[in-house]
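Progress against Task 2.4 (sequence-to-structure conversion) is shown through the following example record, which the project officer requested during the mid-term review.
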Amino acid sequence: MRYLVTGATGKAGRHVVRELLARGASVRVLTRDPERAAGLPAGVEVAVGDLTAPATLEDALDGITGLHLLTTGGDDYATLRTGPEIVELAEKAGVRRVSVLWNGQSGPVEEAVTASGLEWTILQPVDFMGNTLGWATPIREAGEVREPFGDVPNAVVDEADVGAVAAEALTGDGHAGMVYAVTGPEALTPRQRLAAVAAALGRDLRFVELTEAQAREGWRQAGLGEELVDLLASWHGNPPPAAYTVTRTVEDVLGRPPRRFADWVRDHLDAFR
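Structure tokens generated for the chain above:
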């Protein structure tokens, strides 16, 4: 069984690759830049292609049993509009299963996948604990974090758990046609997350709350497209209940509880020192 993982150099994608390899599967990854795949485990096959240009995917999909698919593409992480073309190519290549990692809203990829003959599973993590690594430099250099919406809770999930759920959906039974909201075991505000990092470091850290306008400008300067800027502002400023509602998905799918934020901090503490 051979699986193609898109977004394999991203936060969750690396864990999808690792979990599939642990299950004895053959893994091929899709990347626009082969150099970015240099840190992936030995034995992983690298294919060059671009989800925004479906014609580049034919060779990558050849011989693939299951596909882990992103819903964004390009340097600005815009929602992919090429879902129908990607799904058509996957079905033509003989792909049987697909796990779809959403980007906070349903779009053309999900619509195409759910209308297809593929055995699909959609994963809806609310936010990755790994995004906290964006705080590492300001914590090290200034002992502070500058963020908006400091008191809005979010059921952040360890990206390793997301990767494990995706791998199980691709290799296990009983997941076809399922939409999984994947969360951690608790909803935490940015202030609470910073407090957890401070406790693990044993030092005081300051939380400086940005206005929404300041946050939007910062996201634009980071190269995010306006669509994603709007999504981030909405999701973090006025989130739907799904953003802070803890689910049992990880435990139900994997048979173990999800990892806590304190566990994630402990494993990544060196990044904040």
